[in-house]
Design brief:
The complex is a heterodimer of chains A (220) and B (286). With 220 residues, chain A is mainly α. Chain A has helices spanning 5-18, 20-52, 54-68, 76-83, 87-111, 115-123, 128-139, 141-165, 171-180, 184-217. Chain A has one domain: MetI-like (MetI-like fold, Orthogonal Bundle), CATH 1.10.3720. Chain B has a 6-stranded mixed beta sheet with strand order 6-7-8-3-9-10, with helices on both faces. In chain B, helix 6 (201-207) packs antiparallel against helix 7. Chain B starts with 8 loop residues before the first strand and ends in a 23-residue tail after the last helix. Classes of the chains: A mainly alpha (220), B alpha/beta (286). At the A-B interface, helix 6 and helix 7 of A face strand 6 and helix 2 of B.
Chain lengths: 220, 286
């Protein structure tokens, strides 16, 4: 039941070169990028609303904490009913998987901006959107970055689950195809790719970003 | 006001209270009226909790008085504004900006073009001896340097009044002495009006021309002293020593009041609870 290592490597190589795996990577990353961007923007916006208003915090804020505990794949049946079994359903669960945690990170980031920075900016004449853009947002960058990192992990998992169940290409779909054809070498190749992409994103992108900010700010 | 001369900063009948868990509301400032001339260096001293910082926040427009009004150059204070810049106890520099960008922050807000703002900021940073650090980030600077940047950031705005809220309290003694001299130098050069809140009597006596002593709970003006400041560099002498002693004596009752409130009956009143030694260092912190 286990293919040999050389068999796996060969499949991996040909898959990358002849395009089968390469195209799947492209499809998956495209979806991830769109869903994750939507989640980030939405999360920042919701975080802003919660930060601004006590009423929103008590209502929406509470709801979001509850929603966050629902694994995003649970939304899939609903999404299929709403949008059909297509790309849109997958995007939906990718976005929804990351939005809530992004909202929570953004909220706590905004809330923890030191009063001192806010006072300084206000006495220097800052207000409104300028205040948001030059104080609140940059001051919460460290927390937003760790939020992005967690949000990314959530959307990555949601994407794989969605593609596995749904149709329309991508790494998850390739995995499912490998299973139905009994092609274990393909299944393992795709698993390796999934692991590699996850590691690259986490270590090379987010960890680096986090370290760079910490260095600039003089934290640790 | 009335008369020919309009006071530069005029504080008129200010009352301010804050909500309190047990007592409902606590009165922090009680009928404060005070006038400050243009170019004057005024210090407010008083025990902690006497509302001196609250008054500064009210002038800054960061908070609103319950009654009374504050006017600066004839204009009523309603909001924070760049004509009343504050130097806080902690530097409050933005860690994501370089020293130069921190100093130009307010200038850019005023609508100055980048080049002009940079030039102005560099000039001001030269005045506080930080020309070599314009591209550094705040965490790379020492406490004294950071506070210098904060002062430069405030002065570059050419405020009508510079509000300082215990700006040197978090610094070590040597740095503080150096900054005292520098602040006096800057004051003479720029002729800026300074409103300086401190709990350090010596600091107030050495730096300012007018010293307002607050009594506590509620905060009220107790006495006003005038000092010949060390305009030619700080050199404590008999006169300042005498004044310091006078202010300390006037504050003694207030300090006891605070101790009694904090410790209740446990506190044993001594005839002279304050440490004084003959060399004249009577405890710069009260």
């Amino acid at each position: 039941m286990f293919p040999s290592l050389s068999q796996v490597l060969l499949t991996l190589y040909t898959g990358l070169v002849n395009g089968q795996i390469a195209i799947a990577i492209y499809t998956s990353m495209g979806r991830l990028l769109i869903g994750f961007t939507i989640a980030t923007v939405l999360g920042l916006f919701l975080g802003y609303l919660i930060w601004r208003s006590k009423l929103v915090e008590d209502t929406l804020g509470f709801l979001i904490t509850a929603l966050q505990s629902i694994p995003s794949i649970v939304w899939f049946p609903l999404a299929i009913i709403w949008f059909g079994l297509n790309d849109f359903s997958i995007l939906f669960i990718v976005a929804i998987g990351a939005t809530w945690t992004m909202t929570i990170s953004a909220t706590s980031g905004f809330k923890n901006v030191p009063k001192l920075y806010q006072r300084v900016a206000k006495t220097l004449g800052s207000s409104g959107f300028h205040f948001l853009r030059t104080v609140i947002l940059p001051a919460s960058v460290p927390q937003i970055i760790s939020g992005l990192r967690i949000a990314w992990a959530f959307s990555w998992r949601a994407l794989m689950a969605g593609e596995l169940l749904g149709a329309g290409g991508g790494l998850g779909h390739l995995l499912e195809m490998g299973r139905s054809l009994g092609q274990m070498d393909l299944v393992i190749s795709v698993m390796i790719i999934i692991g590699v992409i996850g590691t690259i994103m986490d270590n090379l992108v987010f960890l680096r970003l986090e370290r760079r900010v910490q260095k600039k700010w003089g934290i640790s | 006001m009335g008369g020919e001369i309009q006071m530069y900063l005029s504080i008129d009948g200010i009352e301010k209270s804050f909500p309190h868990k047990e007592k409902g509301r606590v009165n922090v400032l009680d009928n404060i009226s005070l006038e400050v001339d243009k170019g004057q260096f005024v210090s407010i001293v008083g025990p902690s909790g006497c509302g001196k910082s609250t008054l500064l926040y009210l002038i800054a427009g960061l908070d609103k008085p319950d009654t009374g009004e504050i006017r600066i150059a004839g204009k009523k204070v309603t909001n924070p504004g760049p004509d009343r810049v504050v130097v806080f106890q902690e530097d409050g520099l933005f860690p994501w900006l370089t020293v130069l960008d921190n100093v130009t922050y307010g200038l850019r807000l005023k609508g100055l073009p980048k080049k002009q703002a940079d030039d102005k900021a560099k000039e001001m940073l030269k005045m506080v001896h930080l020309s070599n650090f314009i591209d550094a980030y705040p965490h790379q600077l020492s406490g004294g340097m950071k506070q210098r940047v904060a002062i430069a950031r405030a002065l570059v705005m050419e405020p009508a009044i510079l509000l300082m809220d215990e700006p040197f309290a978090a610094l070590d003694e040597q740095t503080r002495m150096v900054l005292h001299n520098e602040l006096l130098e800057i004051w003479q050069k720029t002729k800026v009006t300074i409103f300086f809140v401190t709990h350090n009597i010596r600091e107030a006596v050495l730096l300012s021309e007018k010293i307002v002593v607050f009594e506590t709970r509620p905060g009220k003006i107790k006495e006003i002293y005038f000092s010949k400041t060390m305009k030619d560099g700080i050199m404590p002498n008999d006169a300042t020593f005498h004044l310091e002693k006078q202010i300390l004596a006037s504050l003694q009752g207030e300090i006891e009041k605070v101790l009694r409130e904090e410790m209740g009956d446990d506190y044993n009143f001594k005839a002279d609870p304050l440490h004084r030694d003959s060399s004249g260092d009577m405890g710069s912190h009260i």
